[in-house]
Amino acid sequence: MDREGYISPLSSRYAGKAMQELFSEKNRVRTWRKLWVALARGQSHLGLDISEEQIAEMERFVDDINFERAAEIERQVRHDVMAHVHAYGEQCPSAAPIIHLGATSAYVVDNGDLIIQREALRLVRNKILKILSLLADFAEKHKALPTLGFTHFQPAQLTTVGKRATLWMHDLLLDLEEVDFVLSSLKFLGSKGTTGTHASFLELFDGDSRDVKRLEEIVATDFDFENVYPVSGQTYSRKVDSRFVNVLGQVAQSCSKFANDLRLLAHLKEMEEPFETNQIGSSAMAYKRNPMRAERMNALCRHVITQGQNTAHTASAQWLERTLDDSANKRIAVPEAFLALDGVLNLYINVAGGLVVYPKIIHGRIMNELPFMATENIMMDGVKRGGNRQELHEAIRVHSMAAASNVKEQGGVNDLLERIANDPSFNTNLEHLTSLLNPVNYTGRASQQTEEFLADHLRPALANWDGNTQGEQLKV
Fold this sequence. Notes:
Strand order of the largest sheet: 1-2
Mean pLDDT: 92
Radius of gyration: 31 Å
Number of helices: 19
Strand content: under 5%
Number of strands: 4
Helix content: 55-70%
């Protein structure tokens, strides 16, 4: 590894091997060569003078890419696509005259990007499904475990640990719908030429529009695209890149929300991400268990989300049928959005598969707050025992303020139950009041909601997933 030049941490620390291979230079150029082969095969099929021997020669060198020679040629011609056309032609001398016939650079660059980005989004989709599977198991296990709910990060009504996990899953299911829409609506650029008019191909086919359109269909089918974009300039609309990166940003929003929640819960000591035996939480404070995976997720998600503005600006700045101010930006922004999100998803898989729950801490926090939440039940119980509802309401208000003062100002415990038990107007005792505070009675339908969500929404989404997707080994 060259340690004197800049190396992207997306490659060295965060993104997984599969995603990196998709956006590698080798895969990019190999895809270009496959596109040149498909173009030649389609042209031959439609009657152009291209032999099976020429196509076979091209096919032999699809994976044997002479990168060094292409780099030498590019230094001379200052054009990366033409450098590879010439380098490929040197390997395939009989096919050299027909490589890239009628095409412009966008034929290989843009169609190649669509192919690669489609595969990358499919990889994202599979990892989302893996996360959903892990969270579903977690939610099923903890569907009935009461926990203190929070609004504004202030104690609110109880929920369950499993129900909280359904909120994380629901966000990802919404993302999955968007991912599927992007994949299902994606089209091939095809072979439309310099300004998108088919002019060069119309010349090749002696003005036969049917063959020109048929060529696009043949090549698109070779790469499993059902449709081509009906119109374009030289390139596909850069709104397509914006759509890709926007859906990645939506996934990143959900991942970041989960990571933030986990960091808050780690602070409360209710839940934690996995912590390895030899892991160091802090260089100074040996006792600490910093939520470093969740923090890293937040950091990478921020990068993915901001790329949405980048591709939006690029889409809005294109001139007429083609301009090149997208190229350098696109080479960085789109792959990095995928690579960064891949790092996030690998972290999410790792964390979701090893979430740690501390039920005793959770129960203790519930019992510190539950007396306040149970006051209406206590008041109704007091009425049943002969009390006056209005008088009991006022008594509870006074006792609640006093108990809250004892906790906040005196640093004491919540003694609301003791105060009520000692108030004769309630006609009760501490043992009976305590019996009213079973946390399960205050979680509403949280457990049933979890079961319903898993059965009606989550499991169907996983029904056609083969379950083979695994998180990749975290590098650091």
